[in-house]
Amino acid sequence: MKKKATTYWIATAFVAMIMTASGGLAISHAPAFMKALAHLGYPPYFSNLLGLGKLVGVCVLIAPGLARLKEWAYVAFGITVLSACYSHFNSGDGWLALEPLITLAALVVSYLTRPMSRRFPNFGVMKSDT
Questions:
Q1: Whole-model pTM?
Q2: How do the domains of the chain map onto residue ranges?
Q3: Residue 54 · residue 69 · CB < 8 Å
Q4: How far apart are CA 109 and CA 8, in angstroms?
Q5: pLDDT of 127
Q6: In the structure, what pLDDT confidence band is assigned to residue 105 with cuts at 50, 70 and 90?
Q7: CA distances from 96 to 33, 62, 93, 124 (A)
């Protein structure tokens, strides 16, 4: 059981670090981030929305409780990472488009190994009697 908890925290810490760093760069309008955002075809104001969403998502992901919001954070991060892959691919970045999939893999590991205290209960799910 300890191995599962360690795996969860390593994967979650990795995702939190990546999202915090990119969210911070977005909120601060770091020149390199803004240049990359423009290369992908996004308007400058999108960095505020993206940065705020990432930072709030990280807070939800690492805070105790908030199981329902954690589900939404995982979904939002998944959409964000897959959108980054798609955007890089369509911008002609070649193999760089696959780099966000590392974060997606860590996100999936975090989701699958999260402890029961961080899961939303499955109310209304019926078990079959067969």
A1: 0.84
A2: 2-111
A3: no
A4: 7
A5: 53
A6: very high
A7: 15, 28, 5, 42
For the record, the structure tokens of 36 come out as: 């990359």
Interatomic CA distance for residues 65 and 68, integer angstroms: 9
Q: What angle do CA 96, 102, 104 make, to 5 degrees?
A: 115
Query: Measuring CA to CA, how many Å separate 113 from each of 61, 62, 73, 118?
Result: 13, 14, 15, 10
Phi, psi of 105 (to 5 degrees): -60, -45
Cβ–Cβ under 8 Å, residues 79 and 104: no
**What span, in angstroms and rounded, lies between the C-alpha atoms of 40 and 91?**
6
φ and ψ at 36, to 5 degrees?
-65, -40
**DSSP for residue 98:** G
